Automatic annotation (TrEMBL):
Pathway: Amino-acid biosynthesis; L-methionine biosynthesis via salvage pathway; L-methionine from S-methyl-5-thio-alpha-D-ribose 1-phosphate: step 1/6. The lineage of its organism: Bacteria, Pseudomonadati, Pseudomonadota, Alphaproteobacteria, Hyphomicrobiales. Keywords: Amino-acid biosynthesis, Isomerase, Methionine biosynthesis. Belongs to the EIF-2B alpha/beta/delta subunits family. MtnA subfamily. Substrate binds at R53, G54, A55, R90, Q200, N251, K252. The active site is at D241 (proton donor). Pfam families: IF-2B. The record marks C161 as: Transition state stabilizer. It is an enzyme of class 5 (isomerase). The keyword Amino-acid biosynthesis applies. This is Methylthioribose-1-phosphate isomerase. One of its GO terms (molecular function) is S-methyl-5-thioribose-1-phosphate isomerase activity. SUPFAM superfamilies: NagB/RpiA/CoA transferase-like (SSF100950).
Length: 362
């Protein structure tokens, strides 16, 4: 995707073939800067501090984190230590474990002298697979948007959090269909949930849509149900950090409430996800998906830009008020109209997923 006329991915390797660059998403939308990752600890810190975020990108960053570790020390002990460090950063998004398991299995089978080169090649493969999967999600999802098109007004789409190219290597998951449809000339308007408490919608999704020239309006998180009641939402498309084999979807906190409102008002509720986000080991998302709880400060304080352009953080709550900060919730499969994957759209059921991914389900 493009920023200020230049094409970017969210993560790339330096000309030396070893050091890794990422976009510092914690500074967006008011400052655009990149970070240089020199070792595994840098990669783990970038994930943990949400300098990089989004399930697909977390997985790719984890893969490059293991590559950085193998570059510094390719011993079994170093690989295992790096694996454990990276895995502990974000517990909910299954893409991280998927990528780390794939990398570790490859590296521990290989001679130590070959591990660094193998690691970088495999991480690059994972990144390219992510781009291809997200673009395919975009193609399949754009067809759903085309079918919802009307002559009298744009297709109104509600999204939650950021599931665009910033959450992946490129294209994204829930926003990829929007980009594909917009480029195909389908009139679109996006309702952008602010997504408290980190406001990834108001900051990151809005930033992306401006860059792509897509019509959008930022709304308070609690406005979605009102819009649906008044027929102003044609479909909802969100992303996923982990999807069970039975079709339960774990996504940014607040997604469940959007699904309930959509169900009550007859608005189709779709989820865009690559197959790496499916956790075939579990069926009950509410019971079995670990929900990350982040710092209460993300709830009690908010960051923004002062009139002079300087970044500021202000306190929202009274002194002494405690807060809790659950990062995700689970939307039961019964509330999901369909899952948009790189192999097509399916029902949010075990049978639907197995039909598209018999090789993975087995």
């Amino acid at each position: 995707m493009r920023i200020d006329g230049r094409d970017y991915r969210t993560i790339w390797v330096d000309a030396d073939g070893r050091r890794v660059h990422v976009i510092d998403q914690a500074l967006l939308p008011h400052r655009f800067e990149t970070l240089l990752l020199l070792d595994c600890a840098d990669a783990a810190r970038a994930i943990g501090e949400m300098k990089v975020r989004g399930a697909p990108l977390i997985g790719v960053t984890g893969a490059y984190g293991l590559a950085l570790a193998a570059w510094r020390d390719a011993s079994d002990a170093a690989i295992e230590a790096a694996y454990a460090l990276l895995l502990a950063t974000r517990p909910t998004a299954v893409n991280l474990r998927w990528a780390l398991d794939r990398m570790r299995a490859l590296l521990l089978r290989a001679p130590q002298s070959a591990r660094a080169d193998l690691a970088y090649a495999e991480a690059a493969r994972i990144a390219e697979e992510d781009i291809a999967a997200c673009e395919a999600i975009g193609d399949f999802g754009a067809e759903l948007i085309r079918k919802a098109a009307r002559d009298d007004r744009p297709v109104n789409i509600l999204t939650h959090c950021n599931a665009g190219w910033l959450c992946a290597v490129d294209w994204g998951t829930a926003l990829a269909p929007i980009y594909k449809a917009a480029r195909a000339g389908i009139p679109i308007h996006v309702w952008v949930d602010e997504t408290r408490p980190r406001n990834q919608g108001a900051s990151l999704t809005a930033f992306e849509l401006i860059g792509e020239g897509v019509s959008h309006t930022v709304i308070a998180d609690n406005a979605g149900g009102h819009l649906m009641q008044h027929g102003l939402v044609d479909l909802v498309i969100v992303g996923s950090d982990r999807t069970t084999r039975a079709g339960d979807v774990c996504n940014k906190i607040g997604t469940y409430l959007k699904a309930l409102a959509a169900h009550d008002n007859g608005a189709p509720f779709y989820v865009g996800l690559p197959s790496a986000t499916i956790d075939w080991r579990i069926a009950d998302g509410v019971k079995d998906i670990p929900i990350e709880e982040r710092s209460p400060r993300e709830v009690t304080h908010i960051s923004g830009r002062a009139p002079d352009g300087a970044p500021v953080e202000v306190q929202l709550t009274p002194d002494g008020s405690p807060a809790r900060n659950f990062g995700f919730d689970v939307t039961p499969a019964r509330l999901v109209t369909g899952l948009i994957t790189e192999r097509g759209v399916c029902a949010a059921t075990e049978e639907g997923l197995k039909a598209l991914f018999p090789d993975l389900a087995s």
